[in-house]
Amino acid sequence: MAKVVDIFKLWDSTTVFAKAISAKPDTVRKWKKFGRIPQDAWPSVIVAAALKGCELTVEDIIAANTPMKQRGRPAHKPKASKNRRRGDIALPA
Question: Where are the domains of the chain?
Fold first, then answer.
């Protein structure tokens, strides 16, 4: 399976898939939207796929998951100071 979408195609809809793994449909829709199935859901997805007659492995899910993007804001990089301390007033030269 090349992508997470291919795993989703095993079921008729995301709602049916969500019921098969005992998850909320909105949660499963987000997985599909972002192209990732979270690690804690892998066992239930593998069991549900087996019940459908499809052999799905952890390696298949890892390969199908898209890489995670950066989460949150980037780290603050302090600007280089010109030997000034906080509160110093810059005088014109």
Answer: 4-64
Residue 68 Cα distances to 34, 62, 65, 71, 72, angstroms: 9, 12, 9, 8, 12
DSSP state, 69? P
What would the two tokens of residue 55 be? 């052999």
This prediction has a pTM of 0.69
Q: What is the pLDDT of residue 47?
A: 96
The span from the CA of 1 to the CA of 71, in Å, is 26
User: Could you give the C-alpha distances from 12 to 52, 68, 70, in angstroms and in order?
Assistant: 11, 27, 32
Contact status, residue 34 vs residue 66, Cβ threshold 8 Å: yes
